[in-house]
Amino acid sequence: MITLLDTIKARRSIHSFHEKEVEIDILKEIFTYGSYAPSHYMKEPWEIKLYQGEGKDLLIDAIMKSYQRIGMIPNNQEPKTVKMMDSMRSFLLAIPHHAVIYFEREEDPVRYEEEYAAVCAFVQNCQLAAWEYGVGMLWTITPYMHDSTFYKDIGLDPEDKKIAAVMQIGYPKKIPSAKGRTPIDEKLEIIK
Ligand SMILES: Cc1cc2nc3c(=O)[nH]c(=O)nc-3n(C[C@H](O)[C@H](O)[C@H](O)COP(=O)(O)O)c2cc1C
């Protein structure tokens, strides 16, 4: 029997996915497991925008425009740029699902940290649950998450909402080998 402890160690970040979509009921189960994450005052601050099928066009267009706006891709239509954009677009389109995970911004920095921490716990719970369903995820943080026009392009008010992560989701084509971790004794200071 595979235990949660096995899953914690076996899970890998997935960078290449099969084209096949994950059934929506499975994704809902995964997000439901995610939602058992702790949150202060039971705020359950996580919100999810799930892009799949033709819905991905909207997200990927917004990403491309943001990349050009913030200078990650040159802002011109030269053949080299067009080629680069086409290849980035195809790469992103080939990923079956993208989930934008966001939460309501809190003015108070302590509250903000609480909400962000809870959303990160949600994301990791989702990653672990996904692994048990044979579904792979990649947790990404990218510059467009700080571009207010990008927020507006996907229908979020940047004054009100904060994107915590963009998850790439699908059935893994390749599972990277184990990475191992730094022995915990190197991180642990016991004060007696
Ligand atoms: C907050 C956060 C942001 C991450 N952002 C990226 C990213 O933008 N691109 C990427 O390839 N991996 C990203 N990762 C995945 C890490 O690279 C990965 O978790 C790490 O290399 C360990 O590999 P493992 O998840 O397979 O154990 C991110 C992970 C976290 C927790």
From TrEMBL:
Source organism of the structure: Ornithinibacillus xuwenensis
Names of required cofactors: FMN
Pfam families assigned: Nitroreductase
Domain annotation Nitroreductase: ranges: 8-171
Key words of the record: Flavoprotein, FMN, NAD, NADP, Oxidoreductase
CDD domains for this protein: YdjA-like
Name of protein: Nitroreductase
Family indicated by similarity: Belongs to the nitroreductase family.
Transmembrane segments: none
